[in-house]
Design a protein that fits this description.
alpha/beta, Rossmann fold, six-stranded parallel β-sheet, two-stranded antiparallel ribbon, 4 helices, 12 strands, 19% helix, globular
């Protein structure tokens, strides 16, 4: 649920929002939208992305529709704690590329009264939960699952189809390597 739709936004407390879904479903667009609204409200915002994600820009979070915001690049989620100490709102893109400590970092920040918004894939290319996102979903107050359009049949898509034969779980790429698929058209790799 988008906090802008709530009748009562939490006060005097922090919280975690997760925007998840498959590739090309608008996760980063939604993250950018929420962060821009926070900036318009004159809130101090800090934005982070993992070093591994250099697809479109080294220093910006960038949606597939080319919307962008300047971000700080971090190797490990633990760096976010110090780098966001003055922020009221913290945005993290590509949460699936962080280690399990992302969950503890987000909880710590929320416990300090901060609004933490994380966007990331909830499933990997095999259709399996993509850690640490499932653990983050379990502790988040607000969850938004975005859907793409299946490139095969046009139905709502919630899976990411890898078009190459890489066996590694993490292969950074965009339309050259991945496409959105619905449950029916998704073809999990044979293992």
């Amino acid at each position: 649920m988008d906090t802008s739709e709530l009748h009562s936004v939490p006060r005097n407390t922090g919280w975690i929002e997760v925007v998840c879904g498959c590739m090309f479903s608008g996760k980063t667009e939604e993250l950018i939208r929420r962060l821009r609204r926070a900036e318009i409200a004159k809130q101090k915002v800090a934005i982070f992305k993992p070093r591994i994600d250099n697809r479109y820009s080294a220093q910006h979070i960038v949606s597939h529709s080319e919307q962008s915001l300047t971000s700080q690049v971090v190797e490990d989620a633990s760096e976010i704690i110090e780098l966001s100490k003055d922020a009221q709102v913290i945005g993290v893109d590509e949460g699936q590329f962080f280690k399990a400590n992302l969950v503890d970092v987000c909880e710590l920040l929320a416990n300090k009264g901060k609004r933490v918004i994380v966007a990331g894939l909830d499933q990997d290319y095999r259709g399996k939960p993509f850690e640490p996102m499932p653990q983050l979903l379990a502790v988040a107050e607000y969850i938004t699952k975005t859907l793409a359009i299946c490139v095969v049949c046009g139905n709502p898509a919630d899976r990411t189809q890898r078009k190459t034969h890489h066996a590694d779980r993490v292969v950074v790429g965009a339309k050259d390597i991945y496409e959105a698929r619905c449950r029916h058209c998704f073809e999990p790799p044979s293992e």
